[in-house]
Amino acid sequence: MARSVLVTGGNRGIGLAIARELAAAGDAVAVTYRSGEPPEGLFGVRCDVTSTADVEAAFDKVEAEHGPVEVLVSNAGITKDTLLAMMKEETFTDVIDANLTGAYRVAKRAIRPMMRLKRGRIILISSVVGLSGQAGQANYAASKAGLVGFARSLAREYGSRNITVNVVSPGFVATDMTAELDQEAIVANIPLGRQAAPEEIARVVRFLSSDDASYITGAVIPVDGGLGMGH
Ligand code: NDP
Question: Is 229 contained in some domain?
Fold first, then answer.
């Protein structure tokens, strides 16, 4: 039977690429979308990960359609960049709420059914800046670094239940999130000399979700063209 997979923020960008990659591999893939329409050919559930009620309702719908979620990809995320001196408290907490507490909400909802299944894969999408830091992104970098400690704690808590928890740390990926950044300046610091395509992140997520990655847990996998080397 096809595995039940849920990708948050799967209506565009990296999340959509992950959803398509896993669907092509034969999984029963559901995506959450917060605004707009669900992507064609994928089961979509409307969900804002800052709402516990939305998360609960989304999982209920996915479980009814595909069965308990066996692979959870927590991908939904936002940026609200500004220097600390200018950063309002809500600019900090909004980003933490979506990126870090959002991951908590979905993982929390997923974990008991995974324990009952006696298997599960949780993959959290962090960022290279979680470990390197980035001027103007203290809120975002803190949220992404937080995912590492969160994932590693879950890896310890649920390893004996055959549930792996890993982090993927993309570098600079061509999506809406990066469309307005100074491409030339960023690419100059990337050893591979280019941005990633979302599919290059998606293939690593597919690997982590596969049987080939059965002995990997608590890992932080950089997919950044070398941008974060040394961190
Ligand atoms: P996009 O801005 O293209 O897409 C973000 C996705 O997250 C959208 O589907 C969006 O939904 C969803 N989302 C945002 N906030 C919420 C929320 N509160 N509830 C539910 N869904 C939400 O970003 P990317 O595809 O580039 O990024 C995906 C992930 O990868 C993020 O976690 C990001 O931090 C991370 N990342 C991206 C990098 C890059 O260079 N692009 C580099 C490193 C990490 P909606 O369409 O409704 O807005």
Answer: no
